[in-house]
Amino acid sequence: MSAPLRGFLLTRQWDDLIPEPDKARGGLTKSLALQFWILTDRGPARLTVSDQYAVCFLESSAMPVARRILTNLLGDSSGERPPWYEKELELKDFGGRPVHGVYLREQRNLYRVRDLLTQAGLTPMEADIHPTDRFLMERFVTGSMAVHGETVEKDGVLEFHNPRIKPAPYTPYFKVLSLDIETSMDGAQLYSIGLVATSYGADVGAGAVQRRVFMVGESAPEGPDYLIYCADETQVFQRFIAWFDDFDPDILIGWNVINFDLRFLQKKADDLNLSFHPGRGGTPMDWRQSRSDDQHFTLCIPGRVVLDGIDTLKSATYNFESFSLEYVAQHLLGRGKLIHDPDNRGDEITHLFLHDKPKLAAYNLEDCQLVWEVFQHALLIEFAVERAQLTGLALDRFGGSVASFDNRYLPRLHRAGYVAPMLPQNPVGVGSPGGYVMDSIPGLYRNVLVLDFKSLYPSIIRTFKIDPLARIKGIEIERGQDVLREDLWDQQETVKADRKQLVPGFNGAVFSKEHNILPDIIGELWAARDEAKRHKNAAMSQAIKILMNSFYGVLGTPGCRFFDHRLPSSITLRGHRILYRTKELIEQQGHQVIYGDTDSVFVWLKEYKQSAAAEIDSVGKQLAATLNQWWRDYLTQEYGIESFLEIQFETHFLRFVMPTIRGSEKGSKKRYAGLAARGEGEPEMVFKGLETVRTDWTPLARTFQKELYRRIFHNEPYEEYVRDLVSDIRAGKKDDQLYYRKRLRRRLDEYQRNVPPHVQAARTADRIREEQGLAPRYQRGGWIEYVVTVNGPEPLEYRRSALDYDLYVERQIEPIADGILRFMNASFQDIAGGQIGLF
Fold first, then answer.
1. In the chain, is it the N or the C terminus that has fewer CB atoms within a 10 Å radius of its CB?
2. Interhelix angle for 538-555 vs 518-534, to 10°?
3. Using one digit for the tens of pLDDT, what is the confidence trace for 495-537?
4. Of the ranges 7-16, 250-259, 279-288, which one carries the lowest mean pLDDT score?
5. Mind listing the domains of the chain with CATH numbers?
6. pLDDT, averaged across the chain
């Protein structure tokens, strides 16, 4: 047998097909077939795994009824290759009952059988697992793999039939294509297809770059080399497809590339009666329409991955006020599109197509280039690879926290002797207690330390053995001790548990110290993240952090097959106790905790008023070390478990303000600001939850808050600054900063009662656009920029009335000023009140 070939998984698909040997003999019986495309050093390879059986599990006691249903639907289970068969397994369900496996030749029959069994009151378990996912997860293959088997080369593609696969390290080197198209405003005509293509690997960077723009038009004697004129849309397509097949990309990237560029190209190809099958092996794209939005699609291109820039950024936890390419590129790269005006962009593109095709080509190509540079800058391809490697999800699948949990958990659960339950049909206790948020002590402080528990919820799961299997094993252990516990809702720690074998949870839960899975998974991920940090692998570190932090959310959602309210509540309620006890320990040492939130405590060192930053830092580090040692000793003595809790000294705020709730003397929560020390560098202003970081406040209000706080934190004069700002507002000098930006979260026609200002502005904008012969912009939602005038809210781009300056000062400037001035024994009225009404 030849040496194994290593590769990285690109796509996965299944179908019910007639096996090739049967087809050659005229057979008609279908069976489940799996297909995987991988990228190797020898190019793309297709792995076909044929003649498979789909599987689900049933309680053994349910088999008499199940047999009748299966036989009536599919016939007898005897013979060499029956349509279905059953097998008694050495596995149990979560109730401790023995189970049978039910195996079906066709995946679609599994879905039919699942529905019939459910209608009969039976419980088919794990019937929702996709067969490709099950095949991979049971072999612990996520992304990279080693493939064993004989290869055949067919049409330039390596083919494996029924190979063996196992996990193995492999670093892929992708061919990446950044794609963008230009069309007429009405979407009827294709003007051009722009391409930026290169080879790219995480360890070697990018290779040589190809740039092309295929455009409808007559050839001109002068023009850039990348611009290729075509006689018509058909030739644009033909030249593009020929180039595409020659380059043979592994990854396609773009901006809304699925629902605009590729969707448009598919429709245009259909209109022109052209074959557009960009999948490897000449396969078509597999389009899936969203159930909730008929304009939104997902797709699979066999052998190729499509990464949309917007979705990939969101998955990597990037957050922008706008995810337009213009905004993101300006923010990350410092430059944007070559045509900036969104209102006139369509008209300008058509004008360039008719009168200046080289300039349109430059615009088209620059969009491709911007997307590619955003992907490079944000390490999005590296992130997608690391995420797939960790979760077992497809490279281009976003979200999927429950599926990624299943991929890691189910194979280990099976090896522990259990099958997973069905999704809960009527879950109770949805919505566990949230993180513990302390009442704050408002004020303006010097020398506030932030101590932060590193990955608190994952460390609680790991320390206290909070795990679906551990809970079931805990029940079995107590049943053997003649202990039967009720499902409680008292939010108290479980009492009288055998602490030699069990760790008490909350609401009546106990967890086995020996039999658990999730704590070990977190331990592996924790070590991998530490290793990633040592090697400065930011993409891997971020992917692991997102995955570990998702586990609590997965256990707390009724969309998880393991949902039980005692699991998430045992995490959050334990967190409450840990944070509260940590506060007590700090205050026993003479410091004051002025605030705490979920995994952090804010400590005021009131006795260190004039101390050097180095001394304060030393106090913070020593305090963290003392707390960690206390928790290690306490958990060993009280529970007989090893502590994986780790509190860190995170931030030293030189100045810190904790505001009050507006109109109250009570301290706020999740809202504060401070001047954070940054070692030898300049201190940094930090805002949390305040107006400065909220997009629904005007740019002027946000700028004002930053500058006012900066002056106060640095002991600089501020009264004249406040007065001058108010004067400038009333003089019309700040009009360009007095707009609001808010999101329309629903369709415009769905706002019926109590219509808010931004909706009023959006309706006005669309009415004016209609009068001007322009397409409406806000009917399906989106972002609106608007101003408040003496005649009410108006869209920024169509403002016709004078701004209501009194309202802006009253609602945007005064509340921000008073939020901090109250701690200076001053107020906005004291400083600028005399200016109210002067104009």
1. N
2. 160
3. 999 999 999 999 999 999 999 999 999 999 999 999 999 989 9
4. 279-288
5. 1-170 (2.40.50.590), 173-391 (3.30.420.10), 443-518+556-658 (3.90.1600.10), 695-835 (1.10.132.60)
6. 92
